User: Fold this.
Amino acid sequence: MAALPSFAADLRAVVVGANGGIGAALVEALAGRGEIIALTRAELDLTDPATIAAAAARVAAPLDVVVVATGHLHDAAGGPEKALRDLDAARLAHGFAVNAIGPALVAQAFLPHLRLDRRTAFVVLSARVGSIGDNRLGGWYGYRAAKAALNQFVRTIAVEHARRAPLSVVAALHPGTVATRLSAPFQRGVAVERLFTPARAAGHILDVVDRLTPADSGGFFAWDGSAIVF
Assistant:
């Protein structure tokens, strides 16, 4: 079955972060489904608002689906912070810029291009560790906080966007643990059946997007479609 069967046949979709593991798999899964516009980090830098605006201007309207398949967990300076003593202002700021502020600016630039006359979706990849209600282990300070901020952006954007586009869905999705470079240092303790290939993760994401309705807009969902507490 073709991806996103509940969307129009002449689909026009954008994948932001198309050179990442999940982004590339999404582009491949959508191939042949319509016009799929793959934007790499070289074309759209989440830390550079000018490149976001320029990419949106190049793509232009009308659009049916936008998926922001990006994320930043840690850098060469060290892994996710396990304790308060590990916090570093510059690293925190960069994490927020990539994981929360950048996707919000993508929404600002691309949502006006979504069609108003039929079903559309704007989806960002979040993470279960961004759930405040589900945080029982602590640690991973910056990543947790930035993803929590992203979820709040999504919820707030959805409220405003619904007034203009009542047929649209804005949502945050947790793709599960995916065998990509981002998660490589943390895969050892993950059960084999819960460590997804990028292709399988892309399939899950598109299946969930296809099932979401406007009543779900502003929600936070796992790879299997179940709701995650904020």
